[in-house]
Design goal:
It is a single chain. The protein has 537 residues and is α+β, with helices and mostly antiparallel strands. Helix content is 49%, strand content 9%. It is built from 21 helices and 14 strands. It has a 5-stranded mixed beta sheet, with helices on both faces. It has a 3-stranded antiparallel beta sheet with strand order 6-14-11. A two-stranded antiparallel sheet has the order 1-2. Helix 3 packs antiparallel against helix 11, helix 16 packs parallel to helix 21 and helix 17 runs antiparallel to helix 18. The structure holds protoporphyrin IX containing FE. Protoporphyrin IX containing FE (HEM) binds next to helix 16 and helix 21.
Length: 537
């Protein structure tokens, strides 16, 4: 028998592989669409068949918007008269991946994230891990409890008090950014608040975590670090639903820039860690989180790699999130005159002179300022989409539905913060929704909102840095409102950060809404704000 030429053999292998490949795809899609245990849940066609759907939206930065769009779309039903009406119950759950569901209720929030639930962090968190898991990325519950207990020493009341001087120092530097103009009674040149917020929060976080100065507010030298973190977040956001691609050639092919960016940031941290290690001999009292962790080294078995992973994560988790809240606050307050007036009046009444601003005992009196901060985080949550949790063996009930083991579930933060069942007029900046009236008539409404408010998440994996973040935000904002008046920059610059009016992209059209680009955490542009020294003080 004459042997087949090599070309024909290759063609035969290729066509057989293609046929089997197509067959495999057909079987897989058929299974996912009709026989998967989640098949009964509504959702976009492409999300049901592949996690590439979520990865695509993460790459575009509109994952949070698409999740809300799905909750609304799959909550619509046609009446007999062909009108579309919202069937809120149906839209409360959506299939957002072959094995993933998103929910949009306060019940799902509790069922998924509060203490004692049969869930753990999903495999997507593996993509954030470098060498060893830190408190954020640890999937093992017992290991996490141990790591969190150690880390919480850096966030105790005593530790937080010891950071107050550091925060005050950076607040002073932040204020000086608005003083630079010669005529101090005139409005300053427009300031890009997302940049300045990044600078001040990075400076504070690096100082608190490592007792080290990044000086971003005062010098440009280290500012190139910020785009590298952003670039790296894009990669991690895309890989979260496709975690099995981490470390493959495909990943390296798709994200060469992000991988380079990640190593630039890691080299920066490595140099920091080296200088900390060299400074070891000058034993000083632990005044930064790194030293607190290092102090527990021998007894608790936290090795060099663990401390490096933990402290690096704190910088990334801490600065960007706090910065988003800060810039969102300026966006919304500058556009809402009544909220602006109420917040400035409160601050200028509580603090009688500049020295008072360092007195933390007065902060609980800033009830309206805190409501403005909460309302900024409601409308622009710094971690906008779903924090997926994997259901453990035996399955569990989420919001009344049995979910089988191995599936991922999550309650997207931006979606629930815009759910009209908890927040009427969700696109209106309305700090009053957080303040209980003296006659208590709105207590139920406030509590309903609180049940669905989750910028820091809830339960055992909620944010360990919440008190630090709030302390930083209140210190900065009280000082700015005390010393300065501010307004939206005039002209086109004033529109940076807004929705674009007639956008073809879903959810990007509202001029009054601060636009977030969801890459794990939120990136954003502007707002541009002008400042003027307040003449009342
Ligand atoms: C406004 C500011 C902040 C917001 C909105 C925020 C939000 C969050 C959220 C939503 C989570 C849960 C993440 C998840 O489940 O995957 C989280 C966890 C965490 N955050 Fe924050 N965060 C903020 C500031 C900070 C700061 C200042 C630090 C420390 C310097 C920090 C450190 C952490 C850590 C270590 C975790 C992991 C906790 C655990 O899993 O036990 N965060 N944060």
């Amino acid at each position: 028998m004459a042997s087949l030429p090599i070309r024909d053999i290759a063609a035969l292998i290729l066509s057989t592989t293609a046929v089997f490949g197509i067959l495999w795809l057909v079987v897989l899609c058929t299974y996912r669409l009709w026989f998967n245990p989640l098949a009964k849940f509504p959702g976009p066609f492409w999300a049901k068949v592949t996690n590439l759907y979520a990865a695509y939206h993460s790459w575009r930065g509109d994952l949070h918007l698409d999740m809300l769009r799905c909750h609304q779309t799959y909550g619509m039903r046609r009446t007999a008269s062909e009108d579309l009406v919202l069937n809120a119950f149906l839209g409360n759950y959506v299939r957002y991946g072959p094995d993933r569901l998103i929910f949009n209720t306060a019940e799902s929030l509790k069922d998924t994230y509060s203490f004692g639930k049969k869930v753990k962090k999903c495999k997507g968190y593996l993509t954030m891990m470098h060498r060893v898991p830190n408190t954020l990325t640890q999937r093992d519950k017992l290991m996490h409890a141990k790591q969190r207990r150690l880390l919480s020493r850096g966030f105790s009341d005593a530790a937080l008090r010891s950071y107050e001087g550091i925060i005050d120092l950076h607040v002073q530097r932040f204020l000086r950014c608005f003083d630079a103009e010669p005529q101090s009674t005139d409005w300053s040149t427009p300031k890009n608040m997302s940049d300045l917020s990044d600078f001040v929060t990075f400076d504070i976080t690096l100082d608190v975590v490592y007792d080290s100065q990044s000086d971003m507010l005062t010098k440009p030298d280290n500012r190139h670090m910020l785009p590298t973190i952003h670039e790296s977040n894009i990669r991690v956001g895309v890989l979260m639903p496709l975690w099995y691609l981490k470390g493959t050639y495909l990943e390296r092919f798709i994200f060469p820039r992000s991988i380079l960016a990640r190593y630039t940031f890691l080299s920066f941290v490595k140099a920091l860690l080296k200088s900390k290690a060299e400074a070891k001999s000058e034993a000083t009292a632990a005044k930064d989180i790194y030293s607190i962790l290092k102090g527990s080294d021998e007894r608790e078995g936290l090795g060099t790699n663990e401390i490096a992973a933990e402290s690096t994560n704190l910088v990334v988790a801490g600065f960007d999130t706090t910065s988003t809240t800060l810039s969102a606050f300026f966006f919304y307050l500058a556009r809402n005159p009544s909220a602006y007036k109420a917040a400035t009046s409160e601050v200028r009444a509580v603090f009688r002179n500049p020295a008072d601003l360092r007195n933390r005992a007065l902060f609980p009196k800033l009830i309206y300022l805190r409501a403005c901060i909460d309302e900024s985080m409601r409308m622009a949550p710094p971690v906008p989409s779903a924090l997926f949790r994997e259901i453990e063996p035996d399955g569990t009930i989420i919001d009344g539905h049995f979910i089988p083991p191995g599936c991922d579930v999550g309650t997207p933060i931006y979606s629930i913060h815009h759910n009209t069942a908890y927040f009427p007029d969700p696109y209106v900046f309305y700090p009053e929704r957080w303040v209980v009236h003296a006659d208590e008539r709105n207590r139920d409404a406030v509590e309903r909102g609180q049940s669905a408010f989750t910028p820091f998440s809830i339960g055992p994996r909620s944010c360990i840095g919440k008190s630090l973040a709030l302390s930083v935000l209140q210190s900065i904002l009280a000082s700015v409102l005390f010393h300065y008046d501010f307004r939206v920059a005039e002209g086109e610059l004033g529109r940076v950060g807004e929705g674009d009016g007639g956008s073809r992209e879903w959810g990007r059209g509202r001029p009054g809404e601060y636009q977030l680009y969801d890459h794990l955490t939120a990136s954003r542009l502007g707002p541009f704000i002008q400042f003027r020294k307040c003449t009342l003080n």
